[in-house]
Design brief:
The protein has six helices and two strands, in the order ααααααββ. α1 packs antiparallel against α6 and α5 packs antiparallel against α6. Helices cover 49% and strands 6% of the residues. By secondary structure, the protein is mainly alpha-helical. The longest helix has 21 residues.
């Protein structure tokens, strides 16, 4: 499934994703670890005026930039880590979460350790959704075939 419209300069594209729900589910998992805002600019401005963060902040899927709950530097770091993760560099994120979980547990911060554990599980599930792994270290082609009475489709990866 391709994107609609023309590619725009300065925009990064990821995929392809066979179904729209696949990217939504992956992003939902990733927002638990990278709590970036997903609301519109209008919603951001509204919560800035109200001085109260949105519901996503309360369920830990947004870091609350509208009310200054996260510094610009930390928000930029989260954004860079998410882009790095989507580019396939997942080991750094997994290692960071494992270290944060171990540190929290050793300091008897069990709620924080549990949150790290849940984020780690979400990241690992997202990785599984993003990767196809072969049993051996070799190059290979993948073919997909679908047909019914009227038509057939072959996809080569």
């Amino acid at each position: 499934m391709g994107m609609r419209g023309r590619k725009r300069k300065g925009v990064r594209y990821y995929g392809p994703y066979g179904q729209a729900y696949a990217i939504r589910e992956t992003l939902d998992l990733l927002l638990r670890t990278f709590p970036l805002r997903t609301g519109s600019d209008n919603k951001f401005a509204q919560h800035q005026r109200l001085g109260r963060p949105c519901l996503l902040f309360h369920i830990e899927q947004c870091s609350g930039p509208c009310v200054g709950e996260v510094t610009r530097e930390d928000y930029d770091r989260l954004t860079a880590e998410l882009l790095d993760f989507l580019d396939g560099n997942t080991d750094t994120v997994v290692k960071r979460l494992e270290e944060q979980m171990a540190t929290a547990a050793s300091e008897l911060e069990f709620e924080q350790a549990a949150r790290c554990r849940d984020r780690l599980a979400a990241v690992r599930k997202a990785i599984e959704k993003q990767q196809m792994v072969g049993g051996r270290s070799e190059d290979f082609d993948v073919l997909g075939l679908w047909e019914d009475e009227l038509e057939a489709v072959v996809q080569v990866v």
